[in-house]
Amino acid sequence: MSAAPSRSATSQSGKMKKDESFLGKLGGTLVRKKKCKEVSDLTEEGKNAINAPMLPSGTEIHPEDTLLEENAERNMLDPTSRENPKFKDLQKVLIDWINNELEEDRIIVKDLEEDCYDGQVLQKLFEKLCGRKLNVAEVTQSEIGQKQKLQMVLEAVNEQLRPHGWSIEWSVDSIHSKNLVSIIYLLVALAMHFLAPIRLPEHVSVQVVVVKKREGILQTSHVTKELTSTTEMMVGRFDRDAFDTLLDHAPDKLNVVKKSLITFVNKHLNKLNLEVTELESQFADGVYLVLLMGLLEDYFVPLYNFFLTPESFEQKVHNVAFAFELMQDGGLKKPKARPEDVVNLNLKSTLRVLYNLFTNYKNSD
Fold first, then answer.
1. Of residues 149, 157, 107, the one with CA closest to residue 129
2. b/e map 162-200, b = 16+ CB within 10 Å
3. How far, in Å, are 246, 249, 351, 355, 359 from residue 255 at the CA level?
4. Model pTM score
5. More confident residue, 156 or 347
């Protein structure tokens, strides 16, 4: 005859059943939550697959892109273009130029996206280039304040550039959202318009991924954006003169023009027992330009002001830039060409500089 179970044993058995029941419920809840999460993940995965069926490999869609309103679109730089050596070189040239221009303001730019989006650097750069102050707040931290400042800066920039044929490829929203392509479009336009003493890499293009929302579905496509063409096209097409017309529409007369210019410069350089036979190469180091200006204005140019036997690119640019200063001191307008173009054997730039001297000094002895 078996003994009846004690009260404590009965109590413990009931407690175990209760615990097992509780754990079973808890386990069931966890399983249901896990399954719900799996269903949610699967639904999200399916939604992404539907929303981005044409998404290029390597392109990352950010959360804000999925929140686009209907018929809205967003542009993103393709990752492969970001690593393009010419694109990187263009950024470096622009960064060095900005830092050189704003050296007195003790502003150092290291990254175009992070340092230009709030309008502070763009304000200082534009003020330096155009020589006038803008009536905007110096420093502002709030997003609203930054956009208001950007709006005023870009209005001034657009007012300066638009009459000269520049296409406005930037906006307050694109700059403030750190759109690198828009920022570079703006900086290239400023550099070209104000004849910055820099050499921009030519034929720089990037691929931009355009994300659009149509009927709730994200659609993507690639668009090629040309950031720079040739220096000649970027500068020359906006400010043409009779000399451009001569070269473009009467190329047969080019040799006649060159011959006249050679005769003109030799008339004066012969006084120093110097002679020119090739315009495009013999003026590239700036030495003959400096000496020619001294002869035309009838003064001696001290040798310590320029490099008589320049060896580096920088020394040659210094010489040509110094010759340009002498021209302006003589009452001539600032040459349309850049010193770098003359040093780089750009025939059109060299001819334009010499043609300007010829029209002003052709009757000088």
1. 157
2. eeeebeeebbbebbbebbbbbbbbbbbbbbbbbbbbebb
3. 11, 14, 11, 13, 17
4. 0.55
5. 156
